Every structure is written in C-alpha cells, then in structure tokens.
C-alpha cells in the first residue's frame, strides 16, 4: 500500500471534498454580497457538479482493493461490485437532495449547508468501501457529524435545535457502543481487518465476549438504520430537521448503513474468504467450525427486524404529522431490509446441509442484491416524498395531514407525484416499491426455507397492508376531502422538474424492474 494507491481508491471521496471546498470559497469569498437565490443556485449547482464528477470517478475506479500485509491479502478499502453500486446510489441521492434546495428559505448560510452535505456524503462513500473496523468507524463519524449539523441548520426553529440535540446525544451513545464492540473484536483477534476477524474467531471457537461484542455492534449500527429499539431519535429528527436535511438522512444515511451491513454480512456470516478459509485448514472443516461459532448473529437481527416492522407501521397509524409518519415508515422499511440480511439457512435449521456444500454460500448473494435494490429504490422514493412535503410545508406553514387538503386542486402535478411516491412506499404494483418488496421476500423464501423466515415474511406482508392505510390517509386529504383554501401552490421549476423525474423513475423502474436488478448484478 502506498499513497498513490490510497488516492486512487478514495478518488470519489477526494472529489467531493474538493467540491465542498470550492462551494465554500465561492459562497463566502466571491458571492458574499450576492442575492440569496443566486448564492443558493451557485452553491447547489457546484455541489451537483461535484457529485457528477465523483460518479465519473466511481466508474473510473472499477473493481479495486487497497490491501495491506506482506502478501497484500487483507483488504482495507474496496471498490466495484456492491460497493460501487452503493456509492453511485449515495451520489445520485445527494445530487437530488441538493437540487431540492432551490427556493429553500430555512437558512442564509447556504454555502456551509451544501459543503456539509458533500462532506457527509464523502463519509457515506467511505463507509460503503470500508473493509476494516477503524475505517468503518472513521466513515461513520464523518457521516454522523455532518448529519448532526444538518439537523440543526434551521436556526430559527426550536424543533430543529431540539431534534439536533436528541440526535447528537443518541448518536454519541451509539458511537460509544460501536467502538466498545469493535475494541472487543480487536482484543479477541488482535486485528481490525474484517476477514482476519472472521478467520481467527472461527478457528478459536465461540466465547462469551464474542457475543457481547456482537450485541454492542448491533446496538451501534441499529441506531444508524433506526431499527427498534434504537429508533427513538428518528421521529423527532425527521420532524425537526430542514426538509432537505431530513431527505438526506432518510436516503443517503440508509444506503451507506445498509452497504456497511452487507459488507459485514459478506465477511462475517454469509461466506468465508476463500484464501483465508483454505490457508492450512480444510474448507469443509472451516465451514463446520464457522457455523458453530456464528449461529447467534442473524438471530439478533431477526428480532430487531420483526420488532421494527410491527412498531414502525403501528406507530405510523397514530401520526398527524407527515414527517413523523415518514419517520415511522422508515423504521418499518429498515425492518424489511434487515429481514433480507438476517435470514440465513442456518437459522432455519439447515446449517449442517449448507456446511457440507460450500457453493451454497454464494446463493446468498441474491439476498444481498435484493436488499441493495430495496434500499436504493426506497432512498429515491423518500427523497421525492420529502420534496413534496417541503413544498406543501412552505405553502401551508405546517406538515400536518390537513395541510395536504385539496392538493389535487391547488397543484395537480404535485399531487400526482405524491400519489406515486406514497403508493410505491406502500408496495403497490406496478411501481418500483412493489418489486423491491417482492424481490426481497422471494429471496428470503426461495433461499432460506424454514418456519421462521416464512413466518417473518407473512408478518412483513401483513404490515405492508397496514402501511397502505396510513399512506392513503394523506392521499385522501390530497384528493377526496374538501379544503377551505384552494389557492394555487407555486413550485420552483427546478424542484418541480426533479420531483417529476424522480416520479418517472419510480414508475419506469416499476414497469421494467429488471433494468436496475441487472445493473446491480453486472456492476
């Protein structure tokens, strides 16, 4: 490993940091006395250009590994494959979030806001590529610190300050849990490399500290993806943060966090590394020892997934704030996605059969692909939903459900895109949200047959039916219930164009779902 290799593998992150610096120089240096709308347009445009340049850098990278060790066997950072897909998703969602800033009025410090968004996105890219505990923690902190700042950016809003304080306190506690868990893994194995941790823990066998470490790591990462019981920050943060910040938290943070979970799954409990597994140890022996060492990992996630699906959907039924409704919906969706990672054949009583066949490990790729498909399409739809909420909130001064009364008559196009976003989140065909759930549930049932996975999929389908009810409550006000105020709602042309493009993508990917699926498989 040398500095040139490090620069080459971290080129997208470097591009985003340079773009953030240019935004600050342009806004604070060259456009200090310019009109607010000019500063906003320039800063947001520079941010989008930075995201596009980073996208080019991701494509330029291809599949690479930044390795260390005498023979270069141990990966520090990776690109391409699932990592590349997640990084492209993060960059696209970041660019869309920046475009939704047009006509925003929540802050005068627009250059700083865009710069923090870009730096937080760089943290998300680092998380997606990390293959080492220290790199994971650095990326998580870079992303988290940016999110805390973005949440507090509406300085005239008491809710924004309150949400930021709660988010920061919960985030600090989760970081402590995560770092404590990482320290146990390091103490047990003498390494921070994910592949070496798996190899050494498998050969050493299970120990009480292993399970303590795993529970601590689950607690830390559970906060990042807002699953029960680590979800308490989400409703207040989604409600109090500026709408673009809430969209960024709900989309980019989710993609980065689940990309990390996929990395952990690939390294820790889905498949052993071939080189490490056969280094002085027969593969079949390794697989049998591995199953004895790690049987409780997915079980912990199964409980969190089931609790998130139930609590998220049932709590959303009682909400009158659309932002809080989306927050509890996000908790439920995190449960669905976690289900795809947590259900492994060993938890369905098939551990011995799978251990006898090393090829079975690679069939679990379908589950990871379905989770990635889900989180990307969910992030896209959620950005659009928050974009509509932001427009209605500016016009009505509230995000309450009643603020959406008569939306179809006040702005039919805005009501139309809202209809598409909410029905997609509910999983109604032919929108992409339906295929995201279908692919995920099919992967769970097709490759992880057993009573527990089947029961959890049935629970997920039932909770999806519940979610349709509360989404329809908003749409009923937009289309059916009478409204006292029928004055037109004006939308900035750029914002409206972005919302229409997102809605068109949700419809197109629903009609042709194999486009995204084939791209994920072939990247």
Write the layout of secondary structure elements.
Elements: H1 3-9, H2 11-30, H3 36-61, E1 65-68, E2 74-78, H4 81-99, H5 110-129, H6 133-151, H7 158-189, H8 194-204, H9 208-225, H10 233-240, H11 243-270, H12 274-277, H13 283-293, H14 297-316, H15 322-342, H16 351-355, H17 365-396, H18 407-410, H19 412-426, H20 432-447, H21 451-479, H22 493-511, H23 513-522
Antiparallel strand pairs: 1-2
Give, in order, the helices and strands.
HHHEEHHHHHHHHHHHHHHHHHHHH
The amount of beta strand, in percent, is: under 5%
Distance between the termini: 25 Å
Give helix % range. over 70%
Strand order in space, largest sheet: 1-2
Q: Say how many strands there are.
A: 2
Q: From the alpha-carbon coordinates, what is the Rg to the nearest angstrom? A: 23 Å
Task: Provide mean pLDDT, rounded.
Answer: 83
Query: What does the main sheet amount to?
Result: 2 strands, antiparallel
What's the domain count?
A: 1
Q: Shape, please?
A: globular
Helix-strand makeup class: mainly alpha
Query: With helices defined by DSSP (H or I, 4 residues minimum), what is the helix count?
Result: 23
Catalogue the unreliable spans: 270-291, 345-363
């Amino acid at each position: 490993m040398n500095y040139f290799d490090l620069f080459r593998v971290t080129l997208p992150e470097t591009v985003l940091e340079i773009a953030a610096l240019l935004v600050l120089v342009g806004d604070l240096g060259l456009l200090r006395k310019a009109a607010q709308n000019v500063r906003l347009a320039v800063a947001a445009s520079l941010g989008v250009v930075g995201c596009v340049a980073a996208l080019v850098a991701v494509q330029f990278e291809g599949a690479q590994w930044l390795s260390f060790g005498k023979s270069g066997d141990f990966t520090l950072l990776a690109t391409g494959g699932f990592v590349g897909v997640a990084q492209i998703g993060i960059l696209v969602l970041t660019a869309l979030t920046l475009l939704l800033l047009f006509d925003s009025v929540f802050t005068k410090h627009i250059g700083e806001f865009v710069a923090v968004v870009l730096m937080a996105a760089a943290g998300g890219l680092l998380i997606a590529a990390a293959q080492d505990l220290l790199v994971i923690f650095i990326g998580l902190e870079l992303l988290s610190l940016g999110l805390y700042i973005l949440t507090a950016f509406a300085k005239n809003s008491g809710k924004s300050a309150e949400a930021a304080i709660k988010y920061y306190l919960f985030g600090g506690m989760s970081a402590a849990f995560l770092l404590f868990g990482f320290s146990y893994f390091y103490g047990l194995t003498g390494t921070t490399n994910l592949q070496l941790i798996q190899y050494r823990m498998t050969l050493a066998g299970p120990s009480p500290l292993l399970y303590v470490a795993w529970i601590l790591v689950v607690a830390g990462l559970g906060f990042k993806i807002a699953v029960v019981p680590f979800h308490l920050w989400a409703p207040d943060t989604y409600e109090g943060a500026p709408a673009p910040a809430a969209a960024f938290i709900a989309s980019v943070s989710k993609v980065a966090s689940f990309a990390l979970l996929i990395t952990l799954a690939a390294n820790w409990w889905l498949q052993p590394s071939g080189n490490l597994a056969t280094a002085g140890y027969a593969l079949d022996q390794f697989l049998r020892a591995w199953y004895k060492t790690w049987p409780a990992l997915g079980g912990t996630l199964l409980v969190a997934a089931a609790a998130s699906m139930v609590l998220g959907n049932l709590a959303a039924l009682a909400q009158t704030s659309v932002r809080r409704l989306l927050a509890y919906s996000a908790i439920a969706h995190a449960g669905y996605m976690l289900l795809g990672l947590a259900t492994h054949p060993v938890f369905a009583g098939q551990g011995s059969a799978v251990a006898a066949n090393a090829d079975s490990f690679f069939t679990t790729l379908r589950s990871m692909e379905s989770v990635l498909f889900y989180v990307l399409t969910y992030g896209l739809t959620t950005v659009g939903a928050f974009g509509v909420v932001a427009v209605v909130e500016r016009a009505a001064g509230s995000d309450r459900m009643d603020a959406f009364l008569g939306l179809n008559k006040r702005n039919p196009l805005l009501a139309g895109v809202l209809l598409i976003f909410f029905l997609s989140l509910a999983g109604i065909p032919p929108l992409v949200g339906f295929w995201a759930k279908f692919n995920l549930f099919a992967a769970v049932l097709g490759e992880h047959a057993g009573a527990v996975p089947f029961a959890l999929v049935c629970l997920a389908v039932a909770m999806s039916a519940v979610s349709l009810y509360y989404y329809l409550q908003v749409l009923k006000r937009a289309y059916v219930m009478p409204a006292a105020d029928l004055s037109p709602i004006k939308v900035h042309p750029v914002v409206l164009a972005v919302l229409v493009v997102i809605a068109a993508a949700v419809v197109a990917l629903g009609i042709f779902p194999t486009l995204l699926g084939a791209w994920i498989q072939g990247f």
